[in-house]
Amino acid sequence: MTRWPKPYPLAFLIAVLALLPVGVLIELAADSASLFDSHNLRVLGNTLALMVLTIIGAVLIGVPLALFTAYVQLPFKRLWLILLAAPLALPSYIGAFAMYFSFGRGGEIESLTGIPMFSVSGLWGTALVMSLYTYPFVMMTTRASLLSLDGSLINAARLLGQSLWVSLWRVVLPRVRTSIAAGALLAALYALSDFGTPAIMGLDTFTRVIFVEYNAFGLSQAAMLSLQLMVIVALVLFLESRVAGASERPGKHLLLWPSRWQYSAMLVAAMPVVLLAVVLPLAVFMTWLAREGTGGFEWQFAWNSAYASVLAAIVAIICALPVAYAALAGKAGRLMERITYFGFGVPGIVMGTALVYLGLQLPMLYQTLALLVVAYVLRFLPLAVGSVRTTAEKLDSGLVNAARVLGASPREAYLRITLPLTLRGMVAGAALVFLEAMRELPATLMLGPTGYETLATYMWRVYEAGYFGRAAVPGLLLVLLSGIGLMLMLSGERRAEFTLSEDGGR
């Protein structure tokens, strides 16, 4: 009889818990009267239109910026990479909040300059915001692929009489199309799962209508809509899993040295993206802070966010350890790991709907901090699992074997060898879970205890009440936390670039 590896039982239990929201939604949706009616079809059309427009916008912005940051040699190159990647770390509802109240009649821009401005709302306004905050997915995946290409092929095309732009179009872009597709599908997932931006911009997508149904005590209809949304998300996840990057041996890196006017033209082309996605939210929140001060903001809201997020980070790391070790132990463990990744693809509004119903069946959990922490863990557990597994699989197994030869028990070898060496991955995974939980809006709105305000929910309350000036402090705090997350991501990318340059130099 084959004996399961020790991490398997706990990993199996965690995988079953990760699938629990799906079972709850199926049971809840059984009482729904309508599968598809005219309203549902309109919501479906809006959601798909937003997804398509987001993909188009993210690719049109992200691919040129990937070429710009990968190949063009310019002053302060690292600073430009940070500025252009910054929207990746910001929650899109921050940008939607700033843009909605900046443009249009009576907006902040008109109030400060006296110049009438067009409004930014509806489908096109939502697609604009989504494109501005998802193009870094395309930019970063494409840039990573560009950095691994052999630049000598471009030089060969130039020698054969092709212009630089034709060479990039015919030689470079076909070789990175899978990376572009991968980034575009990530942008699509973000557009499908985001709640705050469509809600603020007034677009009826699945996420917004699910929340409306929840507030109207229509849990069955909210569950039915959630399952429909999950079908679309599952399709996108399937397509994303089928996109495989083509391996190519790294060669000499392509370097482009633009003239002064070319450099100026590139900066002018990139500047609107930075202004709209990064500078505008900061300027709007700083203006509100100078005008209205801290308003009704209480620092207890920040403490609530931090406390719940710390609990989620700790629980996520504890759950991630058996899942990560199970993934390294065999195929069954890898399957369990993939199941836990399902929660990351489930939109927060869908997770909230499922757990609200679960809380109603278990009154001791309903509207408690424990249920909110469970939602955070199920949503962001893959971040912790991936970080721990990546660190653990790089460990030298000879160290553990040596400890066993010297008389250490398996438990002692784990506590004294394996656990300390995976501590770095555990801390990184916990930090990522903490940052994502701090920014989570829909699940917190639906599952937070009565009167339990966080930074994200306080911003939503002042938006609903029309006191948008009071969003300055929580908005700036969320931007600060997002900046910390960006530094973590770019530090990882910098280590990857260093490894690539070493490999290419051999």
UniProtKB/TrEMBL annotation:
<feature type="transmembrane region" description="Helical">
    <location>
        <begin position="467"/>
        <end position="490"/>
    </location>
</feature>
<feature type="transmembrane region" description="Helical">
    <location>
        <begin position="79"/>
        <end position="103"/>
    </location>
</feature>
<dbReference type="InterPro" id="IPR035906">
    <property type="entry name" value="MetI-like_sf"/>
</dbReference>
<dbReference type="InterPro" id="IPR000515">
    <property type="entry name" value="MetI-like"/>
</dbReference>
<protein>
    <submittedName>
        <fullName>Iron ABC transporter permease</fullName>
    </submittedName>
</protein>
<feature type="transmembrane region" description="Helical">
    <location>
        <begin position="221"/>
        <end position="240"/>
    </location>
</feature>
<keyword id="KW-1133">Transmembrane helix</keyword>
<keyword id="KW-0997">Cell inner membrane</keyword>
<feature type="transmembrane region" description="Helical">
    <location>
        <begin position="180"/>
        <end position="201"/>
    </location>
</feature>
<feature type="domain" description="ABC transmembrane type-1">
    <location>
        <begin position="302"/>
        <end position="489"/>
    </location>
</feature>
<feature type="transmembrane region" description="Helical">
    <location>
        <begin position="48"/>
        <end position="72"/>
    </location>
</feature>
<feature type="transmembrane region" description="Helical">
    <location>
        <begin position="115"/>
        <end position="135"/>
    </location>
</feature>
<dbReference type="Pfam" id="PF00528">
    <property type="entry name" value="BPD_transp_1"/>
</dbReference>
<feature type="domain" description="ABC transmembrane type-1">
    <location>
        <begin position="44"/>
        <end position="240"/>
    </location>
</feature>
<keyword id="KW-1003">Cell membrane</keyword>
<keyword id="KW-0812">Transmembrane</keyword>
<comment type="similarity">
    <text>Belongs to the binding-protein-dependent transport system permease family.</text>
</comment>
<keyword id="KW-0813">Transport</keyword>
<feature type="transmembrane region" description="Helical">
    <location>
        <begin position="306"/>
        <end position="327"/>
    </location>
</feature>
<feature type="transmembrane region" description="Helical">
    <location>
        <begin position="339"/>
        <end position="358"/>
    </location>
</feature>
<keyword id="KW-0472">Membrane</keyword>
<feature type="transmembrane region" description="Helical">
    <location>
        <begin position="364"/>
        <end position="385"/>
    </location>
</feature>
<feature type="transmembrane region" description="Helical">
    <location>
        <begin position="261"/>
        <end position="286"/>
    </location>
</feature>
